Amino acid sequence: MAKDYYNILGVPKNASEDAIKKAYRKLAMQYHPDKNPGKEAWANEKFKEINEAYGVLGNAEKRQQYDRFGTTGSVNDIFGNAGTRTTFEDLMREFGQSGLGYDFLQNIFGNAMRGSGGHFTFSYGPGGTMRFSNINPEYFFHQTRGPHGQDVRYELTITRSEAKKGTKKLLNRKGKKLEVKVPPGVKSGNVLRLGNACQVTDGCPGDILIKIKTI
After folding, report:
1. What domain count does the chain have?
2. How far apart are CA 76 and CA 79, in angstroms?
């Protein structure tokens, strides 16, 4: 039987996109384990449930399929759409600013990605640094704000053979695709700079820097 995602988020079936997003953000703060001492396991399940619901209802295409056929989603769906992924990123910043932890996210998203080739890590530093895995397991995301705009950093894992011969990879960011050309002979630790690429993906100044990691 399909889950009632509208009931999970506490919104009517004709709720607007904005109302669904606001409900999700409110519940995410409410069910954070740090705000539910002694009931962490319960809070984890509730947090997982609302992320699964928002991953479907926050995506217009998936919502339409759900309304017609009652199809259910996965907690990882929240990373598969630019809009829901951005909302998740904003929520993580709010967690960090509120002094709330992130350790519980590894269990929720790490377990869900196991066996699919995906990976999940997340941390937030005092300098405003965020890091969590992109839905594409080749890339890891890292974001900082500098004096001239927002620089976005990704870590790209490639094989030694690809490093020797050179390769091309597609980076998906906020619904935009960027081709990353890795030159032959690149070394692990080298950084490729996509000058002002944030203007294309984010609509604001900033470079995208790709740090190479070979395996």
Report:
1. 2
2. 6
Q: What is the DSSP pairing of strand 208-214 with strand 191-194?
A: antiparallel
pLDDT band at residue 40 under the 50/70/90 scheme? very high
Q: Are 50 and 8 in contact (CB under 8 A)?
A: yes
- 171, containing H or E segment: strand 167-173
From first CA to last CA, the distance across the chain in angstroms is 43
The least confident of 24-33, 40-49, 61-70, 151-160 is 151-160
pTM over 0.70: no
The amino acid at residue 12 is P
Q: Are residues 31 and 114 in the same domain?
A: yes
- One-letter amino acid at 15 equals A
Average pLDDT, integer, range 210-215: 84
Beta bridge partners of 122: 132
Task: Kindly state whether residue 132 falls inside one of the protein's structural domains.
Answer: no
- 45-54, 60-69, 156-165: range with lowest mean pLDDT: 156-165
Identify the CATH number of the domain in which residue 183 sits: 2.60.260.20
User: What are the C-alpha distances in Å from 121 to residues 7, 65, 113, 140, 169?
Assistant: 30, 30, 11, 9, 22
Claim to verify: residue 189 and residue 150 sit in the same structural domain = yes
- Average pLDDT over the chain, rounded to whole? 80
* Domain extent at residue 47: 5-118
Q: How far is CA 61 from the centre of its chain?
A: 18
167: in domain: yes
169: in domain? yes
